Amino acid sequence: MLTMYSTPWCGYCRRLAAQLDREGIGYTVVDIEQDPAAADYVMKVNGGNQTVPTVTFPDGTALTNPTITQVREQLAAAG
């Protein structure tokens, strides 16, 4: 299952969540404004920036503000 790091006000996050729902791809949302450890993680993988959506895959890789196509490709590559 994917983890999507997000904020409640992020339009890109809402769009990606809707696309994941439409594709039937399971995910968990973590609000980085409510979880300091999650905010730290997002900053770590994004060069110090709290850029969302940041998506973490089961294999430990992460993509920042990915398209649904990139998510599908990463899932396929991870097997």
Automatic annotation (TrEMBL):
Pfam families assigned: Glutaredoxin
A GO biological-process term: cell redox homeostasis
PROSITE patterns from the UniProt entry: GLUTAREDOXIN_2, THIOREDOXIN_1
Domain annotation Glutaredoxin: ranges: 3-57
One Gene Ontology MF term: electron transfer activity
InterPro entries associated with the record: GlrX_actino, Glutaredoxin, Grx-like_ET, Thioredoxin-like_sf, Thioredoxin_CS
Protein name: Mycoredoxin
Organism listed in the record: Natronosporangium hydrolyticum
